[in-house]
């Protein structure tokens, strides 16, 4: 049967497949095919394919995919699940229902080694949570995102796979030889791909365990020579790296405003800031914009280039990003 496919070089296949999956336009009814150096990825809605891939759409015969046994088919209802590497995460207050879902996940065709249930909200300065292990025996996994691998332990570090598309949007703006400072780097989901684009990255995090994983992830992705990983409060490196940054990532949405003075000290003459915030729907961008302008003072012009809602955070609240350029006067 002839279906629309995105045709790309084999080495780009996994990264493109992940982009199409994030956009929810993969055709799950047909098989991906490889012919020589080209991979053909079936899509359900060719009009929704990102513009930079639209010219790669071709019609091609594709074999129908055998439908896997899903947790929903076993349970008779659609459970709320989140995948992170070979871990499946559920979010159930009812222990009996949580274990029923875990049993169904393990009996299904979902590739999974461990099923976890959230046992607490995100807590403390290091933003980690407690977990109930419903199946399997570990909380460490390898997460793959746009062609990169990230080793992490969900019980020891903060990581959200739901931000993959947003991270990719920011990473694609990076040019080779930029000096980037990731002020709250975690295990490196911004820092490592930015280094892979040719940037020199200083990555800082208060969580020492996260920094250990960051160093490991820089190694496993072949960019250790372009990533300087620092454990500690980013304010402690302000003197050493003052006036050097071409780009700053400030992904600490509950309290990034407390670090804007440091961000301005780190900024070079022309510096892009990716500032994450959580605000009420009535004015999601205003508080962040005003805080950045106040921190810039008379030293910089603060030009807002993008205001973007990343996701809903709570009723009437949004997680947002402001892309702001600081230009020294």
Characteristics:
single chain; four-stranded antiparallel β-sheet; GMP Synthetase, Chain A, domain 3; methyltransferase; Rossmann fold; globular; 329 residues
Characterize this entry briefly.
This protein has 3 domains: 2-61, Alpha-Beta Plaits, CATH 3.30.70.2580; 71-138, Met-10+ protein-like domains (GMP Synthetase, Chain A, domain 3, 2-Layer Sandwich), CATH 3.30.300.110; 161-328, Rossmann fold (3-Layer(aba) Sandwich), CATH 3.40.50.150. Helices cover 23% and strands 34% of the residues.
Question: What do you see in this structure?
Answer:
The chain is of the alpha/beta class and 329 residues long. The protein has three domains: 2-61, Alpha-Beta Plaits (2-Layer Sandwich); 71-138, GMP Synthetase, Chain A, domain 3, CATH 3.30.300.110; 161-328, Rossmann fold, CATH 3.40.50.150. The chain is built from nine helices and 17 strands. The chain has helices at residues 13-22, 51-54, 71-75, 95-107, 164-171, 191-196, 208-220, 260-266, 286-296; strands spanning 2-9, 33-35, 38-42, 57-61, 81-84, 87-90, 114-118, 131-135, 140-145, 148-153, 179-182, 200-205, 227-231, 245-250, 267-280, 300-314, 317-328. It has a seven-stranded mixed sheet with strand order 13-12-11-14-15-17-16. Strands 2-3-1-4 form a four-stranded antiparallel sheet, covered by helices on one side. Strand 16 and strand 17 form a beta hairpin. The protein starts with a strand and ends with a strand. The model has no long low-confidence stretch (mean pLDDT 94).
């Amino acid at each position: 049967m002839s279906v629309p496919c995105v045709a790309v070089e084999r080495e780009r296949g996994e990264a493109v497949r992940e982009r199409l999956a994030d956009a929810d336009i993969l055709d799950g009814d047909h098989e991906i095919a490889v012919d020589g150096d080209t991979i053909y990825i079936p899509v359900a809605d060719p009009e929704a394919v990102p513009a930079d891939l639209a010219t790669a759409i071709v019609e091609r015969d594709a074999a129908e995919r055998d439908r896997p046994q899903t947790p929903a088919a076993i349970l008779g209802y659609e459970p709320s699940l989140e995948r992170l590497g070979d871990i499946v995460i559920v979010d159930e207050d009812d222990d009996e229902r949580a274990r029923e879902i875990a049993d169904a996940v393990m009996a299904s065709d979902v590739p999974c080694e461990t099923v976890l249930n959230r046992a607490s909200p995100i807590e403390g300065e290091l933003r980690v949570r407690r977990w109930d292990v419903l199946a399997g025996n570990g909380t460490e996994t390898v997460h793959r995102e746009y062609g990169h691998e990230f080793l992490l332990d969900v019980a020891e570090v903060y990581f959200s796979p739901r931000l993959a598309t947003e991270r990719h949007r920011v990473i694609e703006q990076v040019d080779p030889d930029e000096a980037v400072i990731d002020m709250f780097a975690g295990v490196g989901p911004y820092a490592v791909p930015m280094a892979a684009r040719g940037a020199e990255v200083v990555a800082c995090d208060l969580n020492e365990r996260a920094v250990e994983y960051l160093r490991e992830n820089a190694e496993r992705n072949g960019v250790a020579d372009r990533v300087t990983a620092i454990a500690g409060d980013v304010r402690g490196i302000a003197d050493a790296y003052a006036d050097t940054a071409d780009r700053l990532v400030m992904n600490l949405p509950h309290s990034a405003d407390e670090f804007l003075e440091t961000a301005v000290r780190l900024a070079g003459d022309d510096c892009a800031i990716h500032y994450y915030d959580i605000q009420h729907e009535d004015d999601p961008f205003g508080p962040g914009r005003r805080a950045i302008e106040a921190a810039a003072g008379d030293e910089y012009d603060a030009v807002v280039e993008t205001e973007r809602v990343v996701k809903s955070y709570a009723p009437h609240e949004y997680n947002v990003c402001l892309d702001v350029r600081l230009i020294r006067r």
